[in-house]
Amino acid sequence: MTYSSEPSKVRRSQRDYTLAFKLQVISMVESGQFTYKEAQSHFGIQGKSTVLNWLRKFGNLDWKIPIAMNTPESKIKELEAKLQKLEKELKEERLKREMSETILEVAEEQFGIAIRKKYSPKQLKDLSAKKQ
């Protein structure tokens, strides 16, 4: 009788998982309750890439485009970029309004006609009441 110096390997049996179970695991991973590795250990899933394969096959996320993690730092950067964009848009709108006002002033001076609407005292009173 010969003995091997290598420790004997425990052979795992392949397990079949129901579609409902796979979808449950996928929804937990996609909702952020578990990472795919946490789900794998929590549910006792044997294969190292089994959950990843399920996510690619049945999941709702697009696996071709990498997703940035929603860390506080990335959220801050995202909000700062949005703030800069909004400030730029506000500046452009203010310039447009100023340009429109200037155009109206020049047109009124050159043509000698009142382009802007002049409100009667009653209309002004009604407008101020609506704003309040």
Structural class: mainly alpha
Spell out the helices and strands N to C.
Answer: HHHHH
Extended strand count:
0
Shape label: rod-shaped
Largest sheet: none
| Beta-strand residue fraction | under 5%
Q: Mean pLDDT, nearest integer?
A: 81
DSSP helix count? 5
State the end-to-end distance. 99 Å
The Rg value, from CA coordinates, equals 33 Å
Q: Runs with pLDDT <50, length 5+?
A: none
Q: Tell me the helix content.
A: 55-70%
Essential attributes:
132 residues, mainly alpha, 5 helices
Characterization of this structure:
This protein is mostly helical. Among the domains are: 19-58; 89-131, no CATH class. It is 61% helix and 0% strand. The protein has helices spanning 19-31, 36-43, 50-58, 72-111, 121-131.
What is the fold's blueprint, element by element?
Layout: H1 19-31, H2 36-43, H3 50-58, H4 72-111, H5 121-131
Helix pairs in contact: 1-3
